Amino acid sequence: MHQNSDIKTLAELLVHSLKLYGHNFIFGTTGAGEAEIQDAISKEGDIKWIQALHEFTAVSSAEGYSLAKNKTGIALVDRIVGTQNSIGALYSAYINMAPMLVFSSRDIAGTHLLKDPTAHYSSKHLQIVEPWVKWSNNSQTEKMLEEDLSKALFITQLEPKGISFITLRHDLMQRRYNGIKIRIKNFYYNYRVPDEKTIGIISNKILEAQHPEIFISHAGRNPEYVETMVKFAEMFGIKVRERRYFMSFPLRHPLHLGFSPRMKPPELGNDDLALLFEFGILPGNKLNENVDVIDVSTDFVRRRDIYSGGDYGSSNLFNSMDIICDLGPTLEVIMKHAKIQGSDMNLIKERRARIEDKHNKLMEEIKESANNDIKSGRITASSIGHIINSNWENGMTFINGSISLNTKINLQMDLPEPGSYFSNPSGHLGSPVGMAYGAFLAKNEENYLNGIRNYKPVICITGDGDAIFGNFTSALWSVKHYNLGVVYIILNNGSWAVEWPYFENTIERIVAEKHDHQFIDLDSPRISYSKMAEAFSISSYDVRTLEEFDSALKNAINGARRGEPAVIDIIMDKFNP
Q: Which pTM was predicted?
């Protein structure tokens, strides 16, 4: 139980309780409905308010913090209008399985002490958010405050991790504190693992297979799972391919065979066993019916380990086994159960030799692709990725919001550290620009709170269209105002290029055959992201050559270590399909 005689209102009690639960940041925006809570934040002092200029960016930054810290991120939005503004960010966080607690203020007609006629009266917040949150509640009474907070925080970290959403009555937050005691809980989470019979079946299938393959999508969101997956693949001699939304398996590991397409089904080749580790298949896609498929997921509805899974999620039509569990602990149990005989060891050695040969060839192709582009001086996905990788330092974090160039950039990036890479599997454009500065605070929390400007930079690369959707100017204001060492790299090709394939697949193909770009156009005028940065007194660079990019990146990283953000605007040729 906690009781503090210095607390005067329920808003102060809420904010103080969040601090006692170990939260140092609240990401949000201004708003009349939040005034009591912001009053309490100002009084508390030890909990930092991180202001955004739009709710979408505020919630996206809480998402980035939660993923990079592997801890519940806290956001506060203003009434029904702020809730509506944040929906896209909530969807992005939902697909990323980001643990977040989002508060929204709520005014009840006739109760607003300021008698504000524009108070946005509404009690229907929950109807808007419920598709994308794990639990939602209108907090109604002061007696329920400790229960609401405890349940909300617990649920965010329970697999599959996700969002709790609570509305806070403005009049309730204004009430005088009457000595109510708040219980601060230590949560206990048990692991879900399959029964012994199921573990035995999986183990036998792996040992009996001649050509097994692991496909991973979201598993690296829990950094501690990465080492387990590496041990598992090594123990059984299994090749691995990723959809890289997180760093789920080190690219340079000899069992890694590259990346699988975001939306298309994986190419199984001569596989006779496919192990899908939090790797969903979009409905309508088909897998080879002759391949044994074991699908291991944390989400029984299968909406969140798949690109743009939405409310339908993954298909399970081709799975021979659907396993709902916690992946890391389950792999540990399988390894413990497996009884590998001498004959099995010979098979595993043969597998590893074949896989390592393919891996080495892939690495040579990746290296050659970058070298060719570097020699020619061309700005391409490969040469951009190569230069970022050559300037990389341990402890840095990479947020990749690019779409059409995503995979080729990733192929050049070593990124050996779990928790060093995040992306946007939702398909909802814009969230990476806010995620980046939330991730910066997560990775540099201790130094930031103690005023020690010796930071680990965050690099966020994204397209010009994505930046526009993400309220880029809101993010620029925040990174400058709070001295956050984020380096934004904008792939400026004057187009929403990722949308073009859809025009090539229309029935009549009118737009495609006319090369009518007006529906994806971001050119004439070409947007200057460096000029945007200048408006916020942020260091900026216009880049048109690889030499300029390398020099700009070095300077930007040096500044980011001191908490100085930067924008690198890569001026590319206009997209021309």
A: 0.95
Average pLDDT of span 195-200: 96
Give Rg (Cα) of the chain. 25
pLDDT in tens, 278-301: 999 988 888 888 999 999 999 988
Q: How far apart are CA 231 and CA 252, in angstroms?
A: 15
Q: Which fold has domain 10-173?
A: Rossmann fold (3.40.50)
Alpha-carbon 473 to chain mean position: 20
- Residue whose entry in the numeric block shows the structure tokens 């260091």: 539
Residue listed under structure tokens 């930092």: 48
**Assigned token pair, 575:** 């997209």
The sign one gets for the Cα dihedral 153, 154, 160, 164 is: negative
- Give the residues across from 571 on adjacent strands: 492
Per residue in 228-283, pLDDT (tens digit) is 999 999 999 999 999 999 999 999 999 999 999 888 889 999 999 999 999 999 88
Residue 328: is it exposed, middle or buried by C-beta count within 10 angstroms (0-12/13-18/19+)? buried
Give CB contacts under 8 A, 24+ apart, made by 552-558: 553/387, 553/388, 553/391, 553/487, 553/489, 554/391, 556/487, 557/391, 557/393, 557/396, 557/457, 557/459, 557/487
Q: What is the arrangement of strands in the sheet containing 566-571, beginning at the earlier edge strand? A: 421-422, 397-400, 458-463, 486-492, 566-571, 539-543
Instruction: Give helix 55-69 / helix 472-481 axis angle, nearest 10°.
Output: 60
Task: Report DSSP state, residue 266.
Answer: P
Spans of all domains in the chain: 10-173, 196-357, 377-571
Closest among 121, 103, 85, 90 to 40, alpha carbons compared: 103
> What average pLDDT does the segment 467-476 reach?
96
CATH of domain 377-571: 3.40.50.970
With a CB cutoff of 8 Å and minimum separation 6, the contacts of 215 are 240, 241, 242, 243, 260, 266, 274, 275, 276, 277, 279
Strand runs labelled E in 25-145: 25-28, 48-51, 73-77, 100-106, 135-139
Q: 516-539: buried (b, 16+ CB within 10 Å) or exposed (e) per residue?
A: ebeebebeeeebebbebbeebebb
The single-letter DSSP state of residue 238 is -
Given a contact cutoff of 8 angstroms between Cβ atoms, the answer to whether 351 and 238 are in contact is yes
Q: Are 126 and 165 in contact (CB under 8 A)?
A: yes
* 120 SS3 class: coil
What are the distances in angstroms from CA 8 to CA 25, 37, 76, 404?
A: 21, 12, 21, 53
What is the torsional sign of CA 217, 221, 223, 228? negative
Domain 196-357 annotated CATH 3.40.50.150: no
Through-space distance between the first and last CA atoms of the chain, rounded to whole angstroms: 64
Q: How many CB atoms lie within 10 A of CB 210?
A: 11
